[in-house]
């Protein structure tokens, strides 16, 4: 099908400044980790789930006053009892779920009366992640459900502003791998949703040109992979312990956000989050109150992680490298190790 041209009217753009944020535009999108969290809760509790699409979504935005939305305390309706419904919005694509089929149908009918919508039925795919449409841009979206691509795509993205022949060859190799593994994806299972288990790793000074490190982590909610990342660190660090600790601090911040999200969804965690790394020094620094001169420049990260450990929200533990899931997010692995992941 041909792509349709779309235009957007931005109201009250006088608040933007020329040369600062005049060309910036924003759309309401939901964070991928939020999508995974809600889907895991749905699968574990066997709730019904539906998908909707708003036609000409940007023509339905007429508001004459500021609108505030909040979830009513307790979610209790005298006629229905205690019920829960969640709506995930990504521009004009909607995922809708509720704790009962009756509530779900009632809310969908209410939306149909207000907006011209297409009912896509039971959820099949979301965000258009079904095939790779255009090279590197498509690969970026594909990493939402293919963590095995995260490191390779992150590396190739570093050179897309001025790609050379070796970079294009690497891109083609990634595309060939995707073509041969179309049956792979992220599968969700019914499991416990009371604990977070995290694996974090860092490839110290792994970049041959800048000697910056790459951090990676993966977060499990029960038996399901919930969130993951492969990202280049911004600063040069002089030891592997420093690089690993910065990675731990980043993932502890992610787990704190996920804990707050689960609490807002009325599914609070009952135990501390377990953070596994393969560096002994990092484990000691997370619990040892003594400050060393060589760790002064990562002092904020150290205090942040220690405060979370002291509060009982996080435990930093040692895990051998061979059992470390995050390795695939920080470095290229041998075929045998890659396939084992």
From TrEMBL:
<feature type="domain" description="Reverse transcriptase Ty1/copia-type">
    <location>
        <begin position="3"/>
        <end position="84"/>
    </location>
</feature>
<dbReference type="InterPro" id="IPR043502">
    <property type="entry name" value="DNA/RNA_pol_sf"/>
</dbReference>
<feature type="domain" description="Reverse transcriptase Ty1/copia-type">
    <location>
        <begin position="85"/>
        <end position="135"/>
    </location>
</feature>
<dbReference type="Pfam" id="PF07727">
    <property type="entry name" value="RVT_2"/>
</dbReference>
<dbReference type="InterPro" id="IPR013103">
    <property type="entry name" value="RVT_2"/>
</dbReference>
<protein>
    <submittedName>
        <fullName>Ribonuclease H-like domain-containing protein</fullName>
    </submittedName>
</protein>
């Amino acid at each position: 099908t041909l792509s349709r041209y779309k235009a957007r009217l931005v109201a009250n753009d006088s608040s933007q400044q020329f040369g600062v944020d005049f060309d910036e535009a924003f759309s309401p999108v939901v964070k991928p980790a939020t999508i995974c969290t809600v889907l895991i809760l749905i699968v574990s509790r066997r709730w019904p789930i539906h998908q909707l699409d708003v036609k000409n979504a940007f023509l339905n935005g007429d508001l004459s006053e500021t609108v505030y939305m909040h979830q009513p305390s307790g979610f209790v309706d005298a006629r229905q009892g205690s019920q829960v419904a969640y709506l995930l919005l990504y521009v004009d694509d909607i995922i809708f779920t509720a704790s009962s089929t009756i509530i779900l149908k009632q809310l969908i009918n209410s939306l149909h009366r207000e907006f011209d919508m297409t009912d896509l039925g039971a959820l099949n795919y979301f965000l258009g992640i079904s095939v790779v449409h255009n090279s590197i841009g498509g690969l970026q979206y594909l990493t939402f459900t293919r963590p095995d691509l995260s490191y390779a795509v992150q590396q190739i993205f570093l050179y897309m502003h001025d790609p050379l022949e070796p970079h294009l060859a690497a891109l083609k190799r990634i595309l060939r791998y995707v073509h041969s593994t179309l049956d792979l994806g992220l599968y969700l299972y019914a499991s416990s949703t009371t604990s977070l288990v995290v694996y974090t790793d860092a490839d110290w000074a792994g970049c041959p040109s800048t000697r910056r490190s790459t951090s990676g982590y993966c977060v499990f909610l029960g038996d399901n992979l919930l969130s993951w990342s492969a990202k280049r660190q911004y600063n040069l660090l002089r030891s592997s312990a420093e690089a690993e600790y910065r990675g731990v601090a980043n993932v502890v911040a992610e787990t704190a956000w996920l804990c707050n999200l689960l609490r807002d969804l009325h599914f609070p965690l009952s135990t501390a989050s377990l953070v596994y790394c393969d560096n002994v020094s990092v484990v000691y620094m997370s619990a040892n109150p003594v400050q060393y001169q060589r760790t002064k420049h990562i002092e904020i990260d150290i205090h942040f992680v220690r405060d979370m450990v002291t509060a009982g929200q996080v435990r930093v533990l040692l895990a051998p490298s061979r059992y470390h899931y995050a390795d695939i997010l920080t470095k290229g692995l041998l075929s045998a190790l890659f396939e084992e992941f």
